[in-house]
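Homework help thread (please don't just give me the answer)

Our assignment gives two proteins as sequence + structure token strings and asks us to describe the second one. The first is just a warm-up. Here they are:
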Amino acid sequence: MSHAHSHENTVPRPALVLAGALVAITLALTTLVRVGVLDREAVPAVERAKAGVGAVEVRHLTFADRADGAVVVRDTDSDQALAVLVGENDGGGFVRGVMRGMARERRVNGVGPARPFELTQWANGALTLRDPATGRAIELGSFGATNRAAFARFLKGSAA
């Protein structure tokens, strides 16, 4: 007994055409950016400099691991401990994740943990964590309000 086997395309033709068009548009836009016809996405530091946006507050911070797994956040200018991050709650997990990435960057570049990081609150509301030792900067607002607040709590000003 033989069964009929169909080789009919089950994906509607308009869906295939739209998918192909999406791929073509993506490739075209990528090419236009690469050859310089379209500008690349704005770099926050460059845009702030162009607009003359200044820093409202800068804190120099170190993040040190303790034997019990906690992380101590310290302001190096005042030598004040700002927080002890014990668990993953209240943004501690995000802070630890960001700092693991920054520490990895330092190891790759042969830089030790002694130099502090710069946490900067800008006049336009942006919040940046920068590593002067490697030049790497992270715009913390791009991770959402809750994750931004995990770092903003280390600032003195209440406008964080």
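The one we have to describe:
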Amino acid sequence: MNNPILRGILAVLAGIFIGGMVNMALIMISSSVIPPPVGANLKTMKGLQAAMHLMEPKHFLMPFLAHALGTLVGAFVAASIVAQSKMRYALGISAWFLMGGIMSVCMLPSPLWFTLVDLIGAYLPFGYVGYLLSSNFIAKEK
């Protein structure tokens, strides 16, 4: 596809969709990797809110990985599709996921330490890594 506008639209849609799928897949398997606190129902927003005080630091590992790896994959996909402005697209996808993270914090308050680590460490840095991986991947193909 030589049309840069269509490539840009495809890059954004694919980055958001595939990054979101990675995020959701990791969230879905998180309770089988790290069991939730006894008696906690993490299937609903109310149950999650009610169980937040029971959460230990280990329970925040999978959400962080979901946010970071979903952003990384989404940024990588977007930057791999476009021909120019790869960093702009990668960081745009990162900003999209960061907005989702901010909305999540507003809906589901978490400990301050996790909020800071997640919002500062998961989105823009991993989006930049996605850009770097895309640049290195494409450079090796040529």
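TA reply:
I won't write it for you, but here's a hint about the kind of observation we're looking for: The first helix runs from residue 4 to 33.
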